[in-house]
Amino acid sequence: MEASEVAKSPIEFMVRWHEEPEGRALRFRCQIHETWSLWKQRWFHEMDTRVRKPLAVTPTTDVEKLASAMAVSHRKFGGVALKLNPKNDTVLSIAAKALATTPRKAHREEPAPLEHDTERGPFA
After folding, report:
1. Which of 23, 40, 48, 120 would be a feasible disulfide site paired with 77, CB 3.0-4.6 Å?
2. Where is the composition biased (Basic and acidic residues) (predicted)?
């Protein structure tokens, strides 16, 4: 959140599962693709209004069910919005795991973006 404020731009986070000798781990990547004004224009004028109804993420949210709901929303409406508390580490962990699991639920191999990616589609 702070990095986004400092850069004055939305930051796109991508996450994927990575197999290691000790087990699975999450790998993150982030990029800045656009300004806040361009993001807001896309969000309010170009996205399907049904995408703007966020999926709630709580400390008790099931990762697999959230990933399935995200895959369905992306397939039907072209994007996903999440409502979460950025100060709650458990909630952020669940959201990251769901993002990493979404490609499998959507029967895709590429990583699921959290923000807009022109090749893979919008996630918010």
Report:
1. 48
2. 107-124
Q: Annotate the chain with DSSP letters as a single string.
A: -HHHHHHTS-EEEEEEEEEETTEEEEEEEEEE-S-HHHHHHIIIIIS-GGGGSPEE--TT--HHHHHHHHHHHHHHHS---EE--TT-HHHHHHHHHHHHHHHHHTT--SPEESS-BTTTB---
What pLDDT, in 10s, does the model give residues 35-89? 888 877 877 777 777 676 789 999 999 999 999 999 988 888 777 888 888 889 9
Note whether residue 45 is domain-resident: yes
The CATH number covering residue 30 comes to 3.30.110
